[in-house]
Amino acid sequence: MTGQTGPVIDVQRSLGELLRSKVAGEDAAAEAERIWGKPGPRWFTAADPIWRVHRDASMFVGGITALLLQSLQPQAMAGVAGHSGYKSDPWGRLQRTSHYLAMTTYGTILDAEAAIAKVRSVHERVRGQDGAGRPYRASDPHLLTWVHLAEADSFLRAHQAFGASPLTPEESDTYVAQASIPARLLGVVDAPETVGELADQLAGYRAELEATPAAREAARFLLFEPPLPLLARPGYGTLAAGAVSLLPAWARSELKLGVPDGLAEFVGRPLGKFSVDVVRWAMAGVPDGR
Question: Which of 2, 126, 169, 209 is a Cys-bridge partner for 72, taking CB atoms 3.0 to 4.6 Å apart?
Fold first, then answer.
Protein backbone atom coordinates (compact mmCIF):
# COMPACT_ATOMS: atom_id res chain seq x y z
CA MET A 1 0.00 0.00 0.00
CA THR A 2 3.06 2.22 -0.14
CA GLY A 3 2.39 5.46 -1.98
CA GLN A 4 -1.38 5.47 -1.55
CA THR A 5 -2.90 8.51 0.12
CA GLY A 6 -6.22 9.69 1.45
CA PRO A 7 -7.76 10.18 4.90
CA VAL A 8 -8.64 6.52 5.46
CA ILE A 9 -5.28 5.27 4.20
CA ASP A 10 -3.48 7.82 6.36
CA VAL A 11 -5.41 6.72 9.47
CA GLN A 12 -4.72 3.07 8.68
CA ARG A 13 -1.01 3.67 8.23
CA SER A 14 -0.70 5.88 11.31
CA LEU A 15 -2.48 3.35 13.52
CA GLY A 16 -0.46 0.48 12.10
CA GLU A 17 2.83 2.27 12.65
CA LEU A 18 1.82 3.16 16.21
CA LEU A 19 0.96 -0.46 16.99
CA ARG A 20 4.15 -1.74 15.42
CA SER A 21 6.31 0.73 17.34
CA LYS A 22 4.68 -0.24 20.65
CA VAL A 23 5.15 -3.96 20.05
CA ALA A 24 8.45 -4.05 18.20
CA GLY A 25 10.11 -0.74 19.05
CA GLU A 26 11.02 2.34 17.07
CA ASP A 27 13.50 0.40 14.90
CA ALA A 28 10.88 -2.23 13.99
CA ALA A 29 11.49 -2.07 10.24
CA ALA A 30 15.25 -2.52 10.58
CA GLU A 31 14.78 -5.29 13.13
CA ALA A 32 12.35 -7.08 10.80
CA GLU A 33 14.92 -7.00 8.04
CA ARG A 34 17.52 -8.51 10.38
CA ILE A 35 15.13 -11.33 11.33
CA TRP A 36 13.55 -12.16 7.96
CA GLY A 37 16.21 -10.93 5.57
CA LYS A 38 19.21 -12.78 6.94
CA PRO A 39 20.03 -15.91 4.92
CA GLY A 40 20.41 -19.26 6.63
CA PRO A 41 18.46 -22.37 7.66
CA ARG A 42 15.40 -21.91 9.83
CA TRP A 43 13.32 -24.20 12.01
CA PHE A 44 10.06 -23.16 10.31
CA THR A 45 8.73 -21.90 6.99
CA ALA A 46 5.77 -19.82 5.85
CA ALA A 47 3.84 -23.07 5.31
CA ASP A 48 4.05 -24.01 9.00
CA PRO A 49 1.23 -23.40 11.50
CA ILE A 50 3.53 -21.57 13.89
CA TRP A 51 4.09 -18.87 11.25
CA ARG A 52 0.34 -18.42 10.80
CA VAL A 53 -0.34 -18.20 14.52
CA HIS A 54 2.51 -15.90 15.52
CA ARG A 55 2.07 -13.45 12.64
CA ASP A 56 -1.70 -13.06 13.09
CA ALA A 57 -3.30 -10.04 14.77
CA SER A 58 -4.96 -12.40 17.26
CA MET A 59 -1.61 -12.47 19.10
CA PHE A 60 -2.51 -9.04 20.51
CA VAL A 61 -5.30 -10.75 22.46
CA GLY A 62 -3.47 -14.03 23.10
CA GLY A 63 -0.57 -12.22 24.71
CA ILE A 64 -2.83 -10.61 27.31
CA THR A 65 -4.54 -13.93 28.01
CA ALA A 66 -1.15 -15.61 28.46
CA LEU A 67 0.02 -13.00 30.98
CA LEU A 68 -3.17 -13.31 33.02
CA LEU A 69 -2.97 -17.09 33.06
CA GLN A 70 0.75 -17.16 33.86
CA SER A 71 0.18 -14.87 36.84
CA LEU A 72 -1.74 -17.62 38.64
CA GLN A 73 1.40 -19.63 39.42
CA PRO A 74 2.66 -17.91 42.59
CA GLN A 75 6.40 -18.44 42.09
CA ALA A 76 6.23 -17.45 38.42
CA MET A 77 4.27 -14.32 39.35
CA ALA A 78 6.76 -13.44 42.09
CA GLY A 79 9.56 -13.60 39.53
CA VAL A 80 7.68 -11.29 37.19
CA ALA A 81 6.78 -8.84 39.96
CA GLY A 82 10.31 -8.77 41.33
CA HIS A 83 12.42 -8.76 38.20
CA SER A 84 10.56 -8.03 34.96
CA GLY A 85 9.82 -4.31 35.29
CA TYR A 86 6.34 -4.87 33.90
CA LYS A 87 5.11 -1.66 35.54
CA SER A 88 8.17 0.56 35.22
CA ASP A 89 8.98 -0.49 31.64
CA PRO A 90 5.92 -2.27 30.20
CA TRP A 91 6.63 -1.46 26.56
CA GLY A 92 10.24 -2.51 26.89
CA ARG A 93 9.16 -5.84 28.31
CA LEU A 94 6.63 -6.29 25.52
CA GLN A 95 9.24 -5.47 22.89
CA ARG A 96 11.75 -7.93 24.36
CA THR A 97 9.12 -10.66 24.36
CA SER A 98 8.04 -9.78 20.83
CA HIS A 99 11.65 -9.89 19.62
CA TYR A 100 12.20 -13.29 21.24
CA LEU A 101 9.07 -14.76 19.65
CA ALA A 102 9.92 -13.31 16.25
CA MET A 103 13.51 -14.52 16.38
CA THR A 104 12.64 -18.06 17.48
CA THR A 105 9.80 -18.31 14.97
CA TYR A 106 11.18 -16.59 11.87
CA GLY A 107 14.91 -16.11 12.43
CA THR A 108 17.79 -18.31 11.40
CA ILE A 109 18.54 -21.26 13.67
CA LEU A 110 21.80 -19.66 14.78
CA ASP A 111 20.06 -16.40 15.70
CA ALA A 112 17.21 -18.25 17.41
CA GLU A 113 19.65 -20.27 19.49
CA ALA A 114 21.53 -17.08 20.41
CA ALA A 115 18.26 -15.46 21.56
CA ILE A 116 17.45 -18.50 23.67
CA ALA A 117 20.92 -18.53 25.22
CA LYS A 118 20.54 -14.86 26.13
CA VAL A 119 17.24 -15.49 27.90
CA ARG A 120 18.69 -18.51 29.70
CA SER A 121 21.55 -16.38 31.03
CA VAL A 122 19.03 -13.85 32.39
CA HIS A 123 16.97 -16.63 33.99
CA GLU A 124 20.04 -17.89 35.86
CA ARG A 125 20.19 -14.60 37.77
CA VAL A 126 16.48 -14.38 38.61
CA ARG A 127 15.65 -15.95 41.95
CA GLY A 128 13.94 -15.08 45.21
CA GLN A 129 10.91 -15.94 47.34
CA ASP A 130 7.21 -15.53 46.71
CA GLY A 131 4.79 -13.92 49.15
CA ALA A 132 4.50 -17.14 51.15
CA GLY A 133 8.26 -17.48 51.50
CA ARG A 134 8.61 -20.23 48.92
CA PRO A 135 11.85 -20.01 46.91
CA TYR A 136 11.84 -19.74 43.14
CA ARG A 137 14.35 -19.76 40.29
CA ALA A 138 13.42 -18.53 36.83
CA SER A 139 15.53 -21.38 35.44
CA ASP A 140 13.43 -24.00 37.27
CA PRO A 141 12.10 -26.38 34.57
CA HIS A 142 8.78 -26.62 36.42
CA LEU A 143 8.21 -22.86 36.16
CA LEU A 144 9.55 -22.68 32.61
CA THR A 145 7.12 -25.41 31.61
CA TRP A 146 4.19 -23.53 33.15
CA VAL A 147 5.06 -20.34 31.30
CA HIS A 148 5.38 -22.27 28.03
CA LEU A 149 2.10 -24.13 28.49
CA ALA A 150 0.19 -20.94 29.29
CA GLU A 151 1.64 -19.19 26.24
CA ALA A 152 1.04 -22.02 23.79
CA ASP A 153 -2.51 -22.54 25.02
CA SER A 154 -3.37 -18.83 25.02
CA PHE A 155 -1.86 -18.14 21.59
CA LEU A 156 -3.68 -21.12 20.09
CA ARG A 157 -6.99 -20.24 21.77
CA ALA A 158 -6.76 -16.67 20.48
CA HIS A 159 -5.95 -17.83 16.96
CA GLN A 160 -8.82 -20.29 16.87
CA ALA A 161 -11.26 -17.67 18.19
CA PHE A 162 -10.08 -14.59 16.30
CA GLY A 163 -7.48 -15.62 13.72
CA ALA A 164 -7.89 -14.95 10.02
CA SER A 165 -7.37 -18.63 9.21
CA PRO A 166 -8.05 -21.02 12.14
CA LEU A 167 -6.04 -24.22 12.24
CA THR A 168 -7.40 -27.69 11.62
CA PRO A 169 -7.06 -30.22 14.48
CA GLU A 170 -3.99 -31.68 12.80
CA GLU A 171 -2.46 -28.23 12.30
CA SER A 172 -3.18 -27.40 15.93
CA ASP A 173 -1.18 -30.45 17.03
CA THR A 174 1.63 -29.37 14.72
CA TYR A 175 1.58 -25.88 16.22
CA VAL A 176 1.98 -27.29 19.74
CA ALA A 177 4.86 -29.50 18.59
CA GLN A 178 6.58 -26.62 16.78
CA ALA A 179 6.23 -24.25 19.73
CA SER A 180 7.96 -26.87 21.85
CA ILE A 181 11.19 -26.79 19.81
CA PRO A 182 12.58 -23.51 21.22
CA ALA A 183 10.92 -24.24 24.58
CA ARG A 184 13.06 -27.35 25.08
CA LEU A 185 16.25 -25.41 24.40
CA LEU A 186 15.10 -22.83 26.94
CA GLY A 187 14.85 -25.54 29.60
CA VAL A 188 11.31 -26.92 29.34
CA VAL A 189 11.18 -30.64 30.11
CA ASP A 190 8.67 -32.97 28.42
CA ALA A 191 7.19 -30.19 26.29
CA PRO A 192 3.82 -31.24 24.80
CA GLU A 193 3.56 -32.44 21.21
CA THR A 194 -0.23 -32.35 20.78
CA VAL A 195 -3.23 -30.31 21.92
CA GLY A 196 -4.28 -33.22 24.13
CA GLU A 197 -0.89 -33.34 25.84
CA LEU A 198 -1.00 -29.57 26.27
CA ALA A 199 -4.40 -29.78 27.99
CA ASP A 200 -3.28 -32.64 30.24
CA GLN A 201 -0.14 -30.83 31.34
CA LEU A 202 -2.06 -27.63 32.04
CA ALA A 203 -4.51 -29.59 34.19
CA GLY A 204 -1.58 -31.02 36.12
CA TYR A 205 -0.73 -27.52 37.40
CA ARG A 206 -4.25 -26.70 38.59
CA ALA A 207 -3.71 -27.63 42.26
CA GLU A 208 -0.86 -25.10 42.66
CA LEU A 209 -2.52 -22.18 40.88
CA GLU A 210 -4.00 -19.29 42.82
CA ALA A 211 -4.49 -15.57 42.50
CA THR A 212 -2.04 -14.01 44.93
CA PRO A 213 -2.19 -10.28 45.70
CA ALA A 214 0.63 -9.83 43.16
CA ALA A 215 -1.42 -11.65 40.50
CA ARG A 216 -4.50 -9.51 41.11
CA GLU A 217 -2.36 -6.37 41.02
CA ALA A 218 -0.92 -7.46 37.69
CA ALA A 219 -4.42 -8.16 36.36
CA ARG A 220 -5.60 -4.69 37.40
CA PHE A 221 -2.62 -3.14 35.64
CA LEU A 222 -3.14 -5.17 32.46
CA LEU A 223 -6.90 -4.74 32.25
CA PHE A 224 -7.76 -1.44 33.91
CA GLU A 225 -4.58 0.67 34.23
CA PRO A 226 -2.68 0.16 30.96
CA PRO A 227 0.10 2.69 30.22
CA LEU A 228 -1.89 4.37 27.47
CA PRO A 229 -3.47 7.79 26.87
CA LEU A 230 -7.12 8.00 27.86
CA LEU A 231 -8.22 8.19 24.23
CA ALA A 232 -6.51 4.89 23.47
CA ARG A 233 -7.92 2.97 26.40
CA PRO A 234 -11.34 2.08 24.91
CA GLY A 235 -9.62 0.38 21.98
CA TYR A 236 -7.29 -1.48 24.31
CA GLY A 237 -10.34 -2.38 26.41
CA THR A 238 -11.83 -4.34 23.54
CA LEU A 239 -8.58 -6.33 23.23
CA ALA A 240 -8.64 -6.95 26.98
CA ALA A 241 -12.28 -8.07 26.84
CA GLY A 242 -11.36 -10.62 24.20
CA ALA A 243 -8.43 -11.81 26.32
CA VAL A 244 -10.60 -12.29 29.40
CA SER A 245 -13.17 -14.22 27.36
CA LEU A 246 -10.49 -16.81 26.52
CA LEU A 247 -9.59 -17.51 30.14
CA PRO A 248 -11.02 -20.63 31.78
CA ALA A 249 -13.93 -19.78 34.08
CA TRP A 250 -11.94 -20.82 37.16
CA ALA A 251 -9.15 -18.39 36.23
CA ARG A 252 -11.58 -15.47 35.88
CA SER A 253 -12.99 -16.41 39.28
CA GLU A 254 -9.56 -16.64 40.92
CA LEU A 255 -8.62 -13.20 39.62
CA LYS A 256 -11.99 -11.81 40.82
CA LEU A 257 -12.69 -10.26 37.44
CA GLY A 258 -16.44 -10.41 37.99
CA VAL A 259 -17.14 -11.61 34.46
CA PRO A 260 -19.85 -14.31 34.26
CA ASP A 261 -19.43 -17.00 31.62
CA GLY A 262 -22.32 -15.65 29.57
CA LEU A 263 -20.90 -12.13 29.50
CA ALA A 264 -17.49 -13.43 28.50
CA GLU A 265 -18.97 -15.48 25.68
CA PHE A 266 -21.56 -13.10 24.28
CA VAL A 267 -19.86 -9.76 24.92
CA GLY A 268 -16.13 -10.45 25.30
CA ARG A 269 -15.84 -12.63 22.21
CA PRO A 270 -17.49 -10.14 19.80
CA LEU A 271 -15.43 -7.29 21.26
CA GLY A 272 -12.30 -9.38 20.87
CA LYS A 273 -13.11 -10.17 17.26
CA PHE A 274 -13.80 -6.51 16.51
CA SER A 275 -10.53 -5.38 18.07
CA VAL A 276 -8.47 -8.02 16.26
CA ASP A 277 -10.09 -7.08 12.95
CA VAL A 278 -9.14 -3.44 13.55
CA VAL A 279 -5.55 -4.39 14.39
CA ARG A 280 -5.36 -6.59 11.29
CA TRP A 281 -6.66 -3.75 9.11
CA ALA A 282 -4.21 -1.27 10.64
CA MET A 283 -1.20 -3.53 10.24
CA ALA A 284 -2.10 -4.16 6.60
CA GLY A 285 -1.45 -0.46 5.99
CA VAL A 286 2.14 -0.57 7.21
CA PRO A 287 4.76 -1.11 4.51
CA ASP A 288 6.58 -4.34 5.30
CA GLY A 289 4.35 -4.83 8.34
CA ARG A 290 5.88 -8.11 9.41
Answer: 209
